[in-house]
Amino acid sequence: MSPRKSMPHDAVPAPTRSTPLPVSTIPRQLRFPLLVTLSLAISSILFSVSARYTVGDLGSVSRRLDDWWEVAGLIAWRTTELGLGWWSSYDGMFFKGVDLASLTLLSHLPPLHLLATFYGIRPSTVASSLAIDIVATYVPFRLLRPLLPVHGSAAAKSTVPNRSIIDDLAIRALTTLLAASIYGTVLFASYNSWLPVHLITSFDGLRDMSAAHVSALPLLIATCLPIGYAAKEFIFTSSTGARTDSADIGAASFNPATATLAETLYHNLWGFSSRTKQVIVRTTTLVFVTSLNTWLQTFVTVEGAESYGAAGYAALWATASALTGFALLWVGDV
Q: What are the CB-based long-range contacts (under 8 Å, 24+) for 276-281?
């Protein structure tokens, strides 16, 4: 009998085998040093190329780094940022690197916002600098840590919890607007209270203070929409897609009558759901990275900036980040 040439209509096709992940041939202990080297090299090359088009905008307000410890401090902090993303899985296992790019935007924008608003640096220069920071972070991670090909695939939608919420356009738009509104409101309140005096007394070389006097809340919120989107991605999207783990099961079965003192303390202090824990951890990370990067980049690199002035300006953005995290935690509980 001759073999069949076609499959019957009622036959069940064999399941498709998933595509194996590419495996890096680079030794594990060399990947992170190579990541740091690539990031610094990409940043240096792109800033050198962009200098032809920015016409020395940043150079006109930048402090000369004559001491070795200043350069070493900036490199050490950049290494810390990359290490945080490398060992904290902020490379976007389910969201294709959006986590790390969002954290970079949120933490690197405040010093550039200061230059654009009060030092007269052109928006195109600020945008190119921010883009370089994001690219110098994103590209090395993509080269050295291949990811699961899950973004937008049917497999990803079935394995990521609450995918329908994450993909809902209305929820994405409203959470982005909420985060942008918080950042914009904090800026507006600061512009109309303590910030102008703080800047004038702590920064030399300010060129334009008009933004602090003519700012309008709706315009500030619109300006903060990219920040709102990044905060939504880094905090809300990742926490909403968090999987239930053994700690959730243990918290649900907690019995205060039989629990030990240590178990009771742990349950009261950290017995939250995996989603709540992720919001707390990421909000804390965002506040820490944003405040320290803003202080460091402002005090060390901006000519005429005092340490106290940079700290106050960093506190503004840290406050906005913390309030945004709490608001997105509340949204997730609704």
A: 276/239, 276/329, 276/332, 276/333, 277/242, 277/247, 278/238, 278/239, 278/242, 279/235, 279/236, 279/239, 279/325, 279/328, 279/329, 279/332, 280/325, 280/329
Of the ranges 39-53, 120-134, 175-189, the best mean pLDDT one: 175-189
The sign of the dihedral angle between the CA atoms of 240, 95, 88, 106 is: negative
- Per residue in 131-174, pLDDT (tens digit) is 999 999 888 888 887 553 333 444 455 566 777 777 889 999 99
Q: Which amino acid is at 287?
A: V
- pTM confidence score: 0.85
Q: Give the alpha-carbon dihedral of 283, 287, 293, 296, to 10 degrees.
A: -160
Q: Residue holding tokens 């005092």?
A: 306
**Secondary structure class of 77 (helix, strand, coil):** helix
* Tokens 């990811």 belong to residue: 147
Q: Whole-angstrom Cα distance, residue 120 to residue 295?
A: 20
Give the up-direction half-sphere exposure of residue 46: CA atoms within 13 A in the CB hemisphere. 18
- Strand pairing partners for 203? 305
